[in-house]
């Protein structure tokens, strides 16, 4: 047998331990290759789509590469620690340290080459399906499968270099001093059961403080909490697994009426030992799972914003003209002509906005005409309102301010014109984007409005509103106006335009495409994160399989039934799978409370439904993964040694 054959058979013999490591590596390579295929696709050259693809895929590949490097380093260290007895025997038989390093190098390269080959092959096999999904997301006419050397070169080069680096650095993890300890297998990384009450209490305090701050956050402090909470929660999580949990279990062990019952004694005592051995692993799994939950949750909230975009922007086109706008008539005519040429039905209403000073608040208020409001409201299918002379309604700047304004009755005088009015309640329907008319706006009946208009003569702004039922079909409307605005901004002469133009249909198309593409990218990344997190638990579980098999063989000889055997296994496995996941779920839930505050301030939308869907989906995946691993673990435990 040659040295290379020996290395190959070592890999084959330890395939059970390397299985999760190999699967996670294959999945990482496959996702990286899919991103590379889209990155170099000839059909998306040029334009904003190319920029989105470059930015999103490039960032995803960088994150994936860095995370894979960390995952492989951690995994290799755990594998090598689990094989200390094997390495001790080889050194005892006369193998030199140089040869041992070479053995590890060849084994790692074999696994890496297999992962790259299988991952690249599967990536190319799924490329067509991947392109079909992306094509539907970004609404491209075609995104055909292609064959190019660039995605293959980038993927193979990136991961092969990564495995070479790991192969060279991995032997550093092996302690070759103390040969008798290696042969005994003491390099498994077991630690004494111990904890610090101070650190344990500190971990609980930090977590409670983080959760309290997240639940009590507000618009004024949310930015500061974004930078404060992650380090607090991370440090608290580390102390929670290394000291807080052992401390709590120690207190539980003192309750003999609970602890000394049936097989609870065996399960908890073994669980405490495994908890201390794998505290750092549980911490890593928790953080990785939290990152996965948060990344998908944030991207899902962006998609929620896109889905509720119509509620926030109820108009199809908006053109705002300020005094001195010489292009007003020409631009409005151009927009109406383009809508007719494209066969789009619309309702056009112009809103002259007047400004007056209120004697009640001493602030300036924006005034719009009731007939214009009713005309636009009718197009939306709402009931028209009637106001007598001297009556007015508040025009809420946002949906959330309606209840507050609707309960107010204000009598005031518009000082410049001397018109006395009584504002009784608020207008109940959302006709404009938030703060479009102003933060302090009212609706006047036509008679009072005309009196003020005769006094003011020139409105401060004219708001041209287009209600378009098929608003998503307006992507190409008003391109000339937008180009003029862009050129003026680039030339530094935007102050000369005296108008603004907004096309919610085109904005929605860009936002929906970007957010959906980012969500799709994030789901693949989250899949890699979760598979890696499960792999951490998997190889920790299977590296101690031999000792577990001997332990349960003794228990079987003592007469435990198969049902009792499964109960002990469940009590040992469930904490390892669901405690890190539960902490990550708790972290994410409180983080989403802060995220909801941010969205309330930006767009007043609710992201609860999307976040519940994300967390429920991850829960189902975790349960399926648990039963799959438990099934294989029970099968191996029952196998006679």
Automatic annotation (TrEMBL):
Similarity remark: Belongs to the ABC-4 integral membrane protein family.
Record key words, sorted: Cell membrane, Membrane, Transmembrane, Transmembrane helix, Transport
Listed transmembrane segments: 20-40, 52-74, 103-126, 152-174, 281-302, 515-539, 577-599, 611-629
Record membrane topology: Multi-pass membrane protein
Matches recorded under InterPro entries: ABC-4_Integral_Memb_Prot (IPR052536), ABC3_permease_C (IPR003838), ABC_permease_BceB-typ (IPR027022)
Name of one Pfam family that matches: FtsX
A Gene Ontology term for the protein's cellular component: plasma membrane
Domain ABC3 transporter permease C-terminal intervals: 63-170
Organism phylogeny: Bacteria, Bacillati, Bacillota, Bacilli, Bacillales
Origin: domain of life: Bacteria
Record protein name field: ABC transporter permease
GO biological process: transmembrane transport
